[in-house]
Amino acid sequence: MWAWFVRNTGVCRPCWAAVECDLSVCLSVRLSVCLSVVMAESGSQPRYHFIIFGASGFTGRFVLEEVARCAGEAREELRWAAAGRSRARLETALTQAAEALGKPELKTEVDIIVADVDDPESLAEMCKQAVIVLNCVGPYRFYGEPVVKACVENGAHCIDISGEPQFLESMQLNYDSQAAEKGVYVVGSCGFDSIPADMGVLYTRDQFKGTLTAVESFLTASMGPEGGCIHDGTWQSAVYGLADSDKLRSLRKKFSHKPLPVVGTRIKRRGALFYSDEIQQYAVPFMGADPSVVKRTQRFLSEEHQESPVQYGAYAGVGGVSSVMKLLFAGLMFFLLVKFSFGRKLLIKFPEFFSFGFFSKEGPTRKQMEGSSFRFAFYGEGYTEGQDPSQGKPNAKIRTLVQGPEAGYVATPIAMVQAAITILNEPDSLPEKGGVYTPGAAFAKTTLIDRLNKHGIQFSVL
Ligand SMILES: NC(=O)c1ccc[n+]([C@@H]2O[C@H](COP(=O)([O-])OP(=O)(O)OC[C@H]3O[C@@H](n4cnc5c(N)ncnc54)[C@H](OP(=O)(O)O)[C@@H]3O)[C@@H](O)[C@H]2O)c1
């Protein structure tokens, strides 16, 4: 019936555009996405719903596995391909995924696209073939922008797992209006950075009966008997990110944002190191992208939807006294070395040494990942219904939890793939126009949290 309608009218019903719609690739009936929107923009037909760019990288290989797993769950065919700069490395990645998942067909049935960040034509060719590019090529400060540009120009939505505020915010500054014109959604930080924190604050707000005005989150990560670590790719992103932190300040001035209004009592900032009664261990302010991503989401929801903004403080558990000593020593070395080119070279060359084994060039083993998990505890406060937040102190509290498997290479692929599936399945629940968005801004009205709950990242009220 649907095929007949399109073939005989030349009109694609979801967008009512008079364009050709190739139903062999358009799964819009079930997946609710109209590939013809993209076709109309780019003049060519996307062959794949997802293209994983950087699928041979450490994280990319786990994203590839997660896509293969989710493609197996889908009722309709999900068409996807693996992309990167080396065909041989992509073949190896597919062989490894085939073995890990017991799906030998991955070796022969998944298409490979060779594309290099340094070759804009190859990126354009890749983007023309995708509804959504899942970009795993980092550090994003070096490799991210050409991918965003190619996606926007060629009509592919783009999501990444960057935890680098400077990259994320400069993409918003430089590509938001162009992406809006093209109807393209660019959603950054869709991994462990920063979906649990950003969606966790929204979940806490939605569960609170009244006006939630402030949330503090406390992150703890645990490892099994095999231990664990983080791959070098994230270490590199952190080293170069901190080296460049001055540029972030000047970048932010270019937005000319007015300060976000403070609703309710102003949240108290904790010290640089303190004992947290909430998680019964020492804690420090969370150094990653989460606070800036959450703030951008709150700004978007406040300015675009007149929602009451929630203040946010993010902290991470360190452990006991011996861990604190290690952190102080490693932190001091890091901040001293990161400011000089020679120091950065040392940090990049010896991640294990300078991080006490927390980062490594090999990354964690599968066994280590199986034993690891994360837990985000959210402590919110606000005003019950009928109470005026401009009068007196908050009179109600809420505690919520977001918890899940190993953060970097299990939770991150789950979050990224579910974010991509959400864009594909729920176009009507995304912001009205395309643009560069945080996860919270893009997915506030979608069922992403339900999807994450079903895939092992659990949101709950305590
Ligand atoms: N949000 C989170 O929580 C989270 C979690 C994990 C990772 N990440 C981020 O993800 C990024 C990747 O980390 P990783 O550990 O997977 O690093 P990685 O193993 O070094 O992967 C980097 C990938 O980039 C590719 N690449 C490099 N230069 C390229 C070019 N010119 N053209 C095309 N591809 C190129 C590499 O290709 P080859 O395979 O051919 O070498 C590789 O696939 C980092 O920015 C990291 O911070 C974020």
Features:
462 residues, Rossmann fold, Dihydrodipicolinate Reductase, domain 2, 2 domains, seven-stranded parallel β-sheet, 16 strands, globular, disordered N terminus, binds NADP nicotinamide-adenine-dinucleotide phosphate, NAD(P)-bd_dom_sf, Saccharopine dehydrogenase-like oxidoreductase, Saccharopine_DH-like_oxidrdct
Give the helix/strand layout:
Blueprint: H1 2-9, H2 28-31, H3 35-42, E1 48-53, H4 58-73, E2 80-84, H5 87-101, H6 106-109, E3 111-114, H7 120-128, E4 130-135, H8 140-154, E5 157-160, H9 165-182, E6 185-187, H10 195-207, E7 210-222, E8 230-231, H11 232-243, H12 245-253, E9 274-276, E10 281-285, H13 290-305, E11 311-319, H14 321-337, H15 341-349, H16 351-354, E12 359-360, H17 366-370, E13 373-384, E14 396-405, H18 407-425, E15 435-437, H19 439-443, H20 448-454, E16 458-461
Parallel strand pairs: 1-2, 1-4, 2-3, 4-5, 5-6, 6-15, 7-11, 8-12
Antiparallel strand pairs: 7-13, 9-10, 10-11, 13-14, 14-16
Domain Saccharopine dehydrogenase NADP binding: 51-187
InterPro entries: NAD(P)-bd_dom_sf, Saccharopine_DH-like_oxidrdct, Sacchrp_dh_NADP-bd
Keywords: Signal
